[in-house]
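Tokens as discussed.
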């Protein structure tokens, strides 16, 4: 699109009803802050500039915004005097003169780029203002859209509306596009002579009409415009987000037996032909490659799972882990910051942390990498084709060579060379007849006690 676009995200709400020390827009949906969702939608709709208006807790908002988009600007609204006042806190950004100005809310994370694109089309067709509306079953509390044919005449805030206007179900979703050409004139014309004594952004509509500018309403699905005000609202939006994401994944070729029990993050990547059993949680930064099978009750964070890997049930994969293709990680295994090469198996009850496991190596049940000395982390390196016997403790830093064996129950504190057998435990001794002797002694003791 040849026209330039500024997206202005209002995020100065106090969020009192969240009952939180965290600014409302930093509460997370799909493991990223709500304001980041809105910023990603802006990028997807090819917005050139992004400006965020923050209020209480602005330092925290600034951190998140800058991490999301280094070129975004943050403006602080010190007093909360209404939506038009909030927009003008970003006057500097507006003065830069983009063709399209989109005013969005930081607490509506379900917005889609398609809606922003449609808003921009209405502006490029010559509208001075485009307001996004929706049909509400219960419109109480929303501004009502008053139309005349295809013209939007006014937005009447609930508090100001007559009984007749209150019966209108077409409501202001809150987001609005302004043509850059008229934006400042319209915004500067807003006053605070109304029921709440606030500078209402919605007043620009009537003013634009008085100047014979074109004002349009654009309908969008209600779900996209849901604003989060409470923790219950946050959970509801999370559920809607998860449902949409699950459906998209299944449409792309991922099998889910019980999609309602699979939880995804905003950045989760799962390739086609992955199978997911019930009750699987994907934290941030996870990639699962094609053909992998993820069994029930597994938990993932910061991990790449290779093609045709077989994971779980009850596996916990933690940040920094890369599992190559055809690897197996079984029940009650925790893997952290470990590189597991092609075809290696860690099937039962193990902790593998700060480690590298060579291809086709077998890690026996109950193997633990002792990676922490109480202050520092150390690395365990195991070569290819090695065999670690059950219940071994590998005390890092330690290296076990290609093709080496470690005897079951070993505590390995020294490196094991390639093709060697490392044994680190007491030698077994059998005492002939000793079993019988012990049994006799114990029986005598029992008889003596019961005679007392
Ligand atoms: C606003 C609209 C209403 C619409 C509704 C949709 C106005 C005057 N009214 O009403 O027509 O139906 O949204 O949800 O715009 N904010 C600031 N600084 C302020 C005031 C608000 O940043 O000084 C932010 C809030 O954090 C919030 C957004 O602007 O994200 C909307 O403000 P809010 O007070 O919730 O407006 P509503 O009364 O819901
Ligand atoms: Ca609101």
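Sequence:
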């Amino acid at each position: 699109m040849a026209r330039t676009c500024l997206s202005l995200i209002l995020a100065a709400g106090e969020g009192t009803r969240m009952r939180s020390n965290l600014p409302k827009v930093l509460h997370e949906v799909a493991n990223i802050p709500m304001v980041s969702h809105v910023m990603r939608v802006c990028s997807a709709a090819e917005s050139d500039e992004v400006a965020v208006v923050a209020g209480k807790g602005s330092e925290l908002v600034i951190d998140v915004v800058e991490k999301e988009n280094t070129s975004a600007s943050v403006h602080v609204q010190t007093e909360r005097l209404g939506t038009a006042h909030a927009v003008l806190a970003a006057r500097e950004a507006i003065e830069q003169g983009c063709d399209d100005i989109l005013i969005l809310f930081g607490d509506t994370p379900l917005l889609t780029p398609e809606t922003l694109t449609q808003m921009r089309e209405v502006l490029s067709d010559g509208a001075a203002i485009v307001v996004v509306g929706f049909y509400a079953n219960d419109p109480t509390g929303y501004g009502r859209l008053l139309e005349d044919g295809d013209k939007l005449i006014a937005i009447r805030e609930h508090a100001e509306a007559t009984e007749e206007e209150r019966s209108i179900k077409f409501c202001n979703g809150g987001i609005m596009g302004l043509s850059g050409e008229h934006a400042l004139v319209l915004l500067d014309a807003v006053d605070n002579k109304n029921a709440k004594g606030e500078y209402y952004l919605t007043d620009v509509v009537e003013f634009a009409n008085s100047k014979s500018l074109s004002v349009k309403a654009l309908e969008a699905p209600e779900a996209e415009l849901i604003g989060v005000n409470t923790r219950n609202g946050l959970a509801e939006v999370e559920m809607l987000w998860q449902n949409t994401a699950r459906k998209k994944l299944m449409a792309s070729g991922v099998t889910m037996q019980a999609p309602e029990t699979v939880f995804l993050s905003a950045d989760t990547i799962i390739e086609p032909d992955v199978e997911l059993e019930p009750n699987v949680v994907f934290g941030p930064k996870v990639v699962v490659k094609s053909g992998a099978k993820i069994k029930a009750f597994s938990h993932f964070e910061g991990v790449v799972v290779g093609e045709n890997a077989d994971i779980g049930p009850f596996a916990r994969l933690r940040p920094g882990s890369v599992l190559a293709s055809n690897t197996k990680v079984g029940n009650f295994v925790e893997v952290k910051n470990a590189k597991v090469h092609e075809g290696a198996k860690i099937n039962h009850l193990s902790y593998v942390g700060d480690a590298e496991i060579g291809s086709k190596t077998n890690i026996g049940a109950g193997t633990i990498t002792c990676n922490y000395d109480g202050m520092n982390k150390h690395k365990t390196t195991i070569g290819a084709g090695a065999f670690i016997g059950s219940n071994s403790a590998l005390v890092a830093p330690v290296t076990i060579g290609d093709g080496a064996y470690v005897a079951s129950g070993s505590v390995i504190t020294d490196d094991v060379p390639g093709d060697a057998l490392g044994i680190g435990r007491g030698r077994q001794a059998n005492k002939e007849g000793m079993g019988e002797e012990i049994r006799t002694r114990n029986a005598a003791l029992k008889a003596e006690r019961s005679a007392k």
